Amino acid sequence: MTSADPADGPSLSLSADEEPPGANVGTLPLPSGPLAPDPFDAVTLCWSAAPARRRGKGTRAFRRAFYRDVPDRDWNDWRWQLRNRIRTLAQVEPMLSLTREERESLIRAGTMLPLAVTPYYMSLIAPDRSDQPLRRTVIPSCAEWIKQPGEADDPLGEEHDSPVPGLVHRYPDRVLLLVSGFCSTYCRYCTRSRAVGDGTLGVDETRLSAAVDYIRRNPAVRDVLMSGGDPLTLSDDRLEWILSRLRKIPHVEMIRVGTKVPAVLPQRITPALCRMLRRYHPLWMSLHFTHPDECTPETHRACTRLADAGIPLGSQTVLLRGVNDEVETLRRLYHKLLMMRVRPYYLYQCDPITGSSHFRTPVARGLEMIEGLRGHTTGYAVPTFVIDAPGGGGKIPLQPDYVVGRDGDDLVLRNYRGKTFRYPDPTP
Description:
The protein is built from 14 helices and 14 strands. By secondary structure, it is of the alpha/beta class. The chain has a domain at 48-145. A nine-stranded mixed β-sheet has the order 3-4-5-6-7-8-9-10-11. Strands 12-13-14 form a three-stranded antiparallel β-sheet, with no helix packed on it. The protein has a two-stranded antiparallel sheet with strand order 1-2. Strand 7, helix 12 and strand 8 form a beta-alpha-beta unit. The chain is globular. The termini are far apart.
């Protein structure tokens, strides 16, 4: 990373302990100028002060078994969680009863998307059930080495729509800014498995400055989605370095952050982070949730902090075979999310990335999920089902067909119970 320009304000040199393992460590200038008093400062929330009953039962048992000597102040420190991620077969074996396929895939994992799971998220994984939904999403499978027709390393064609490194400009008024290639926990169905986990997409000031300059030169861009990797694995100072520069661009009306941190690393959502984020409104967050088992007391507390900071929260869920492809599973997930003040936003058909066939469901299954939700629960719990079209076509929404047809001047409609109704709709 290059040295900061003194004109950009004071700078902070970050040590390796303050940055995710494997990330480039250097100097980024910080926003300058006094900060106005923040009423959120009066909120005193401390992870270490949270009583044990507000932690999941599985997490408490897991800590007693594998982290008995780790004090609360370390377990509840997000940097400790990052430094102690489970990344090797030797670390996994004492924690899980591995199948032969799981063990083989872990031995071969060096050539694929790496294994990385935070101790917190590992505490949610069933040790004796290889078919447990959360386990399937983070523990490698030999099926990842099987490439089916139609699969690709970059199925969405993001690299084709990248005018500068780490930025995708596909839609007229919005861009995708990939701030890093680092995640605290790697999902085995990751759309960007080609670009994350190998250190090639570092937190580089030169690259990020070029991306910000591109946005500044294109006044049609009013919406910036920060993703990666996971932006919330950056330190507060590095994250603010990016946010402050985006917010100085007059035509950037809103900033969004895509993250799975509240589900896999809820300790990251600190009062200090929320105070900083509140300075850059309007700021929205898209949270990646997969299964109701992720909705723990810790995650509830993290989402509450973000919502209390005035950040609208939406969820994005990938439909995955054997994980969440039952209506009741999604209904439980969405009801729990609403109780955490998170609005279900998108249900994605799994992208055809290389080695993902064991996760993908037929598209018809996704339509069944929406039909099983619509009318049977509140509309707030019904997301939009989309396919991100291969080759760069963008998101295409799909809905069950509730239009039966026409009968004279009437439109014949079908409701959620299968009953038909007529609506007067004379043709012009």
